[in-house]
Amino acid sequence: MSTLTVPQARRFQRAALTATGIDSLGTGSYVSAAVVLFTQHLSVNPAAVGFGLTLSAISGMLASLPISALADRWGNLRVFTCSYILRALGTLVWVFISGDAQYLAYSLLFGVIDRSAASLTRSLMVAPLSKEDSIRLIGLTALPANIGYGLGAGLSALVLFLNLPIIVILGLNSATFIFVIILYRLTLRDLDLSKADVSPSVITSWTRIKSSLDSSHRRRIVFDNFLFSFHRTFLNVYFPLAVVVYAPNYVWVVPVLFVVNAVVVALTQAAVNAWADQRNRHQKLWGISGLLLGISMFPVPLFAAVGEDVAGKLLIGLLIVQIAAEIAQSAALTVYMVRMSREENLATDLSAINLGGQFQNITGPAIFSSLVVPERWPLAILAGAVIGARGVLVLRRPSNPSL
User: Fold this and answer.
1) Whether 216 and 352 share a structural domain
2) Would residue 5 be called left, alpha or beta, if left means φ above 0 and alpha means ψ between -120 and 50 degrees?
3) Torsion over CA: 321, 329, 83, 212 (sign)
4) Residue 154 is inside which H or E element, if any?
5) Element (H, E) at 97
């Protein structure tokens, strides 16, 4: 339970939501202009861009557990501050990168800091609050995250339209990291940091990492998360590609439904998170998310055989199903992460549970982009069967009363 007073908890939650919006603004500005930055300003071959992003994701996944273990040993706020300072400086270094070799090498290095920051941020939100308040707060962050990301993308579009120096975008992203550090440190200064700043321990970082994966239940959640997180690449990779290939007259629907997705998630995620945290509902939502995703794979072979109008309407229907799967998966995952993470090993446990999602980020784009090729339909059926069966297995799995 939290030792914070009600006013302190509310002040911290407001600061966390504000920090999320600011952080997302910087991320949105950077991500939306990244391809332009790499290809037009850093002289990177377009073919190398995707490989560099993959390298970044791999290095980030590999570094996330060790960095989180350091946070549990040396203090979450301290390591979070160092991480964000390095992110701020590292973002500015991009202006000195040129050519494929430097781009690939720096992507590998930058991914260590940039991609491993999520667990640090999440543990900083969870540590000072009760588990119930933490679960609700993480759901509430969906709104400022979507608003910030959209504003950041809009600012990048304006910078590119006005043909301003690319350093404007990089500087904005860097500044948001510094602002987030200041905001968290000012807010946490007068609060109880007994959970947010754990004293150094004689337990080695390796022991922390090993213990975070010792639980068979936690390992099952990691594997489930890998499978059930594929809704991200279904939404962001397969859906727009399939519309272009099979229903080109429906391309206008893609950005509209992306906006609908962002709005629905932003407005419902907090309530669904709170609902999922009662009477083991999170396990039902966990299984349902996998079942919905699995079922969505089976119509994939039909798109090459039906007409454009049918394909377009079917794709829209599947996207709506994926929005439901996304909300259910996110709510259940939040409950699992918060409830299954030990206070003395908070950042490491949170990072361990998220390994499945990180591995999905690496493998998902290649798998789902290949599904657009009509001859790859057996892969879609196989993926649907595996994911759907896993969802059914979760629904039949005995609930864990300790959560």
Assistant:
1) yes
2) beta
3) negative
4) helix 142-161
5) none
List the chain residues with pLDDT less than 50: 1, 194-199, 202-203
* Long-range contacts formed by 260-264: CB under 8 A, 24+ apart: 260/323, 261/235, 261/319, 261/323, 261/326, 262/146, 262/150, 263/146, 264/323, 264/327
Helix H segments across 277-354?
A: 281-297, 308-340, 346-353
> How far is 101 from 29, CA to CA, in rounded Å?
25
Rounded Cα distance between 221 and 94, Å, is 36
Q: Which helix (H) or strand (E) holds 47?
A: helix 46-74
pLDDT tens track for 362-397: 998 888 888 888 888 899 999 999 999 999 999 998
Mean of the per-residue pLDDT values for the chain? 88
- 402 within domain boundaries: no
Model pLDDT, residue 196:
44
Torsion of CA 145, 151, 153, 156, to 10 degrees: -140
Same domain, 182 and 43: yes
Q: In this structure, are 385 and 262 located in the same domain?
A: yes
Same domain, 256 and 324: yes
- For residues 21 and 54, state if they share a domain: yes
Range of the domain at 73: 6-190
End-to-end Cα distance, the chain: 14
Q: Is residue 334 one of the residues assigned to a domain?
A: yes
Residue 295 CA, distance from chain mean position: 23
196 found inside a domain: no
User: DSSP states of 164-213 as a string?
Assistant: --THHHHHHHHHHHHHHHHHHHHHHTTS--TTTSPPP-SS-HHHHHHHHT
The H or E element that residue 161 is part of is: helix 142-161
Same domain, 14 and 47: yes
Q: In this predicted structure, what is the pLDDT of residue 190?
A: 67
pLDDT at 81: 94
**CATH at 300:** 1.20.1250
